[in-house]
Design the sequence.
């Protein structure tokens, strides 16, 4: 079995799970949903995706700085909101509902978690995380989007001395929108201005989360942490990212279910609503149960991360193992049950299917996380 996060401890009892949304979380949801409804309509997302530059800088500034979503995981003393993973999960649910092309998962979750873990090692990381929390810059880790928690980290880039870095990283999500790249080198974690790297855009399945190959050829970076601290920070960030990605998948699945039910209510065949046919009722009922169960799993993961529960690695693995498949099934049902219109480029259903498929590979496949669950439960592999 591949390397994995430390097994959940059994010595300390865990606090009771709280899967309900607080009033504060619901207010945050309302603010983000209102912004996305006004500035991130499906037609606009599709139009920007067709240009090859899907990111909307104005939308990102409003979300990051106006609403303060970029600093939810950052303590107040470092310039953030001092919230936590539960609030960030609510934001990701709404971003999933809108397949919003913003670098929130990569920047406000992964990069933020890495920088917070390195902030005690020097002022550079603390300064960067403050700028990120304020929405004044976009910072993303130079890691493959498919990098999974519990899997061996990729080989570090080479440091020729003095922070002069060389090497290549493939499939880096949102690199084209970044101001700063966090690069794992053999001498530790470095912050490299994105304009010092050569970015070669890849052709992604998900047009709303662009990928690029990052090439450094003698690029100078600022050392943020030593190798041991850097690798521990990256491992922790990947765990948080995988846990919160489940919330994005839930938001995506919920949109697909809601839109499909609405369509089948209004679409008539043989002088009756298509949604009244018994076979379709059964399919939608099963999908509703899947989405409800996925929400519980994603909320459990967010709560475990927020409370630093000893069984957080297991809870995250369970959430990813389940929510990944639910998002794909919901998107597939959405395309199929919309009939001919669901197969067209103009209808946004394909954006959701592509995001769901891409998310099923991001931060570890469903099979990888099932393997982690089996490992934690001490179940032998077949």
Sequence:
């Amino acid at each position: 079995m591949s390397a994995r996060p430390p097994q959940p401890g059994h010595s300390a009892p865990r606090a009771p799970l709280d899967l309900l949304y607080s009033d504060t979380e619901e207010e945050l949801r309302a603010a983000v949903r209102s912004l996305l409804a006004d500035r991130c309509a499906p037609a606009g997302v599709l139009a920007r995706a067709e240009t090859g530059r899907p990111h909307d800088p104005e939308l990102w500034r409003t979300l990051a700085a106006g609403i303060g979503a970029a600093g939810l995981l950052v303590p107040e003393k470092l310039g953030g909101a001092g919230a936590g993973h539960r609030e960030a999960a609510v934001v990701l649910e709404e971003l999933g509902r809108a397949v919003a092309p913003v670098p929130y998962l990569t920047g406000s979750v992964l990069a933020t978690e890495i920088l917070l873990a390195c902030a005690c090692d020097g002022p550079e990381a603390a300064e960067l995380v403050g700028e990120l929390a304020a929405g004044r810059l976009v910072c993303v880790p130079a890691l493959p989007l498919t990098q999974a928690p519990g899997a061996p980290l990729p080989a570090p880039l080479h440091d020729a001395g003095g922070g002069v870095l060389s090497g290549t990283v493939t499939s880096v999500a949102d690199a084209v929108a970044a101001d700063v790249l966090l690069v794992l080198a053999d001498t530790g974690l470095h912050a490299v201005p994105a304009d010092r790297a050569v970015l070669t855009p890849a052709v992604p399945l998900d047009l709303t989360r662009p990928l690029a190959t990052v090439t450094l050829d003698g690029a100078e970076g600022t050392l943020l942490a030593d190798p041991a601290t850097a690798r521990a920070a990256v491992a922790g960030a990947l765990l948080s990212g995988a846990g919160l990605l489940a919330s994005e998948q839930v938001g995506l699945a919920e949109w697909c279910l809601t839109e499909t039910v609405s369509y089948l209510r209004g679409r008539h065949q043989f002088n009756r609503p298509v949604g009244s046919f018994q076979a379709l009722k059964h399919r939608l009922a099963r999908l509703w149960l899947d989405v409800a169960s996925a929400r519980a799993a994603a909320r459990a993961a967010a709560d475990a991360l927020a409370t630093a529960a000893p069984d957080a690695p297991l809870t995250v693995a369970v959430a990813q193992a389940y929510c990944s498949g639910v998002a794909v099934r919901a998107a597939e049902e959405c395309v199929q049950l919309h009939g001919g219109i669901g197969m067209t480029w103009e209808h946004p259903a394909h954006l959701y299917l592509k995001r769901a498929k891409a998310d099923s590979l991001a931060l570890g496949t469903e099979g990888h996380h099932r393997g982690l669950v089996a490992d934690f439960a001490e179940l032998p592999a077949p």
